[in-house]
Write a structure and sequence with these properties.
Chain A has about 250 residues and is mainly alpha-helical. Chain A has helices at about 5-45, 50-60, 65-75, 80-90, 90-105, 110-115, 120-130, 140-170, 180-190, 195-210, 220-245. Chain B folds into 2 domains: about 1-35; about 45-115, no CATH class. Chain B is about 70% helix and about 0% strand. In chain B, helix 5 packs antiparallel against helix 6. Classes of the chains: A mainly alpha (about 250), B mainly alpha (about 120).
């Protein structure tokens, strides 16, 4: 049998990039499993219909915003207010897409739409690390896609399992599986802590997040994140100035 | 669409949430070809992931009920988070960090529920 070698090789590298992205996302998928199941399991208690909960996972695809929305729905908040709060909670994703702009620059439009839809905390964290590696590999959008598809399928499956299991084990929501999210995020943050400005950014974000917790519509998150970023930039500048001999 | 009792207001809610979330994640890409970010802004972007994630982690760990600061050592979220920091710092393995700290968290929670 004669195999057309040249085109299949480039295909192969794209396929392997796709699976590499999925593989590197595996730990984050594990962390998202309990989170997704709880979301589905809590829906009934919160007064959300099957269709609304499943629709959120299918079309919104934003874990923490879905939880906040569910909490608000449970307390009888009107839907326009829930949409506004979702906007605020997800504003951080604009910082993510700003980071991705240079990496997506040469991609066809359809790719930008698909990858933007899947720009969750987890896929962003995995993809930005891969994009930032200067190894001369092109087609890293396939890596990004692999990560996103894996997260998406997992998130929707877990929501479905939760929706089904929530009826069978109504106490599942009290098992405390919600710790999976901070556990996952701590695991993502730790490798970043390699420089003093990064420590300053994280310490500031953490402190401000507590101080600003009382702000309405979860605005505290955005305030804390911006404070952290500012602290990092300022600290970086201070260190550079000192090294230069003032 | 799903035929399982979804209400009109829920359809508006999900559609609205989907629209704002996608809008936020997408809007910079079509305009990005025509603009150049300032250097200081680009520098700041490298601090985005840890700053955002920390701002999510800290309140969920130190204020499990969303309102009051709980720094006691019978707060399983706090113990679990400390465990995650130690395990992550020592082993530098994401999967191990998540699985082990979950185990610590569930263990502590069980301990205080029983004892």
């Amino acid at each position: 049998m004669i195999r057309p070698d040249t085109p299949s090789r480039s295909n192969h590298s794209r396929v392997s990039l796709f699976f590499e992205g999925a593989k590197d996302t595996f730990p984050l998928v594990v962390g998202a499993v309990p989170f997704g199941i709880i979301f589905g399991a809590l829906a009934d208690t919160a007064g959300l219909s099957f269709g609304a909960a499943m629709g959120m996972s299918l079309f919104v695809f934003a874990g923490s915003a879905q939880f906040v929305a569910m909490g608000l729905a449970a307390s009888g908040t009107p839907w326009p207010m829930i949409v506004v709060t979702t906007f605020v909670v997800n504003l951080r994703h604009m910082l993510y897409s700003a980071t991705m702009v240079p990496f997506y620059k040469k991609l066809p439009h359809a790719w930008k739409i698909v990858l933007a839809f899947g720009l969750t905390d987890e896929t962003f964290a995995v993809a930005v690390t891969r994009y930032s590696k200067h190894d001369g590999v092109s087609d890293k959008h396939y890596y990004n896609l692999g990560s996103m598809v894996f997260m998406y399928i997992n998130w929707n499956l877990c929501t479905l399992i939760g929706l089904t299991a929530g009826k069978t084990f109504p106490e599942i929501s009290r098992w405390g599986l919600d710790f999976a999210m901070p556990a996952t995020f701590i695991g993502i943050v730790i490798p970043y802590l390699a420089s003093k400005p990064m420590w300053a950014a994280v310490a500031t974000a953490g402190t401000v997040s507590i101080a600003a917790q009382g702000l309405p519509h979860k605005l505290g998150l955005m305030v804390a994140a911006l404070a952290g970023v500012t602290a990092g930039v300022v600290c970086e500048k201070l260190f550079r100035d000192r090294k230069k001999g003032k | 669409m799903f035929g399982t009792g979804i209400q009109l207001s829920e359809i508006y809610m999900v559609a609205g949430m989907a629209a704002v979330t996608f809008g936020i994640r997408y809007i910079l890409f079509p305009v990005s070809g025509r603009m150049q970010f300032p250097r200081l802004f680009e520098k700041g972007l490298s601090y985005v992931p840890p700053a955002v994630l920390t701002a999510i982690i800290v309140p969920s760990v130190l204020m499990p009920d969303g309102k009051t600061l709980d720094l006691n050592l019978d707060n399983p979220y706090l113990i679990g988070a400390i465990a995650a920091c130690i395990i992550g710092g020592v082993f530098k393995n994401l999967l191990l960090t998540i699985v082990l700290s979950m185990a610590v968290f569930l263990g502590v929670q069980w301990f205080f529920a029983v004892g």
